[in-house]
Amino acid sequence: MKEVKVKIISKYKELPTMNDNNFFHSPELFKIIENTPGHTPYMAIATNSEGNIIAHMLAIIRRRGSLLPPYLYTHGHIYGEGVYDDKQTNKEEIFSLMLREITRKFRRRLCLYAEFSDLSTKMFGYRHFRENGYFPISWQEIHNSLHSMSPEKRIGNKLLKRIRHSQKLGIVTQEARDEAEIHQFYTILHNFYRFKFHRFIPPESQILAIGRGQNGHIFVTLYKNKIIGGCICVHDNGNLFLWYHASKRKRYMYLHPNTITIWHAIKYGYEHGYAHIVFLNAGFPLIKNPHRDFILKFGGKPITKYRWFRISIPWINSFLSWIYRE
Predict the structure, then answer these.
(1) Percent of the chain scored above 90 by pLDDT?
(2) Which of 138, 134, 119 is nearest to 310 (CA)?
(3) Do residues 102 and 8 make contact, with C-beta atoms less than 8 angstroms apart?
(4) Distance from CA of residue 309 to its chain's centroid?
(5) pLDDT of amino acid 140
(6) For residue 87, what pLDDT band results from cuts at 50, 70 and 90?
(7) Distance between CA atoms of residues 293 and 76, nearest Å
(8) Per the omega criterion (within 30 degrees of 0), is the bond before 70 cis?
(9) How does DSSP assign 16-62, residue by residue?
């Protein structure tokens, strides 16, 4: 792979023209991240001997902190393994070169930890991650097919009756109409995930930018004109990805706002011709996982993959690598 060179770009104005079919590695998301306080984007670009782009991968470095309890650190995150030219047959070798350069960037920026999530297949890049000091943790996604059969035929009668009952009571889901509605949903989202382990919520400015973008949708669920839930979806490569969803927990629980929100996202994907809707984070593949079991009621199937982590403190990274050894 000596003829392949990798460079890293950190300014949107310096990006060359590239394939933007994948939202998570697109110039659109790069620009959104660049304009988000506390966030820095880095695009790794692989070129061949003729100077043509054959692959690119977007990494995000986030600054995180709080006064109560007091902490401040940065972490790096990459969604998927990047985008590759269709003619490339050695994707993993090209990925290894980009991975090495991005890992160096994470080290130089003193990231407490780096994370790769949502890879296309469970074993993609396994050897190269290991060579660069990463360790894997099993994680689950849920994929719902939206072709060949309507969503109503994929769910049970009990759930369908619950959906129709809530709709008769007046609960509806629609795309957010303005920034005020997105702000109300963001407050619900922030409170919903406040105490959840390993759950990062993007700043409100970033969610607003995603809602205004070409590939993002912010859906809000209302009851008597009051927002009680919603979700964030993005689409790329013919699939719809449900990134975050949340609702008010207690007062409106009998209306099942999360159920109506997810059902609307599924119906939207089906009616607009997407092949699948992917729930990016169903959590750990534990025997008992209420969140996963809830999502599976909508007719999807669980997909277990790896998330790869690298801790900047050597002895902690070695210890966790030993715990999650196979």
Answers:
(1) 67
(2) 134
(3) yes
(4) 16
(5) 86
(6) confident
(7) 30
(8) no
(9) PP----SGGGSHHHHHHHHTSTTEEEEEEEEE-TTS-EEEEEEEEEE
pTM score, whole prediction: 0.90
User: CB 175: neighbour CB atoms within 10 A?
Assistant: 14
One-letter identity of residue 49: S
Q: Of 82, 286, 291, give the one whose Cα is nearest residue 199.
A: 291
pLDDT reading at 21 higher than 90: no
Which 8-state DSSP code applies to residue 228? E
| Cα(6)–Cα(46) distance, integer angstroms | 4
Q: Amino acid identity of 205?
A: S
Distance separating alpha carbons of residues 191 and 205, to the nearest angstrom: 17
Per-residue DSSP letters for 131-148?
HTT-EEEEEEEEEEE-SS
Tokens describing residue 289: 């996982």
Alpha carbon of 17 to those of 24, 129, 168, 235: distances in Å?
A: 16, 28, 49, 20
* Cα 200 from Cα 188, distance rounded (Å): 14
